[in-house]
Amino acid sequence: MDAADLLAAMPFAVATGVELDSAAPGEVVGRLPWAPHRCTAGGVLHGGALMTLADSVGAVCAFLNLPPGASTATLASATSLLRAVRGGTAHATARPLHVGGTTVVVLTEVTDDDGRAVASITQTQAVLGARPAG
């Protein structure tokens, strides 16, 4: 599955403007351009928008690390917001920290156009077995 197909499988991410640049089990890269309708007071990109970017990119990373026939669901997500984004684009890079039989833990780092840290998000995803037919 390529990045466009993975993104298309997440309608909320598409509706909110998340874009995927590349997707492989070891690293998923995406972005969210600044836009006035994604902001809070003062033209600052809303923290929820940054979290949506990170959750979407992190979920793709977890999905790409699942065993055949398995699915995933978020168990926990911890976010540290570090810097405001007032223009340009927020860039997210997700990498697996742990790939196990019951959980996948993903670290997503969000930066601004200058490469400065904007947010750090750690997600724990459950590995859910394939459902039997019938």
UniProtKB/TrEMBL annotation:
GO terms for cellular component: cytosol. GO terms for molecular function: 1,4-dihydroxy-2-naphthoyl-CoA thioesterase activity. Keywords: Hydrolase. The keyword Hydrolase applies. Residues 42-118 form the Thioesterase domain. SUPFAM superfamilies: Thioesterase/thiol ester dehydrase-isomerase. Pfam families: 4HBT. The lineage of its organism: Bacteria, Bacillati, Actinomycetota, Actinomycetes, Geodermatophilales. This is Uncharacterized domain 1-containing protein. NCBIfam families: unchar_dom_1. InterPro entries: HotDog_dom_sf (IPR029069), PAAI_dom (IPR003736), Thioestr_dom (IPR006683).
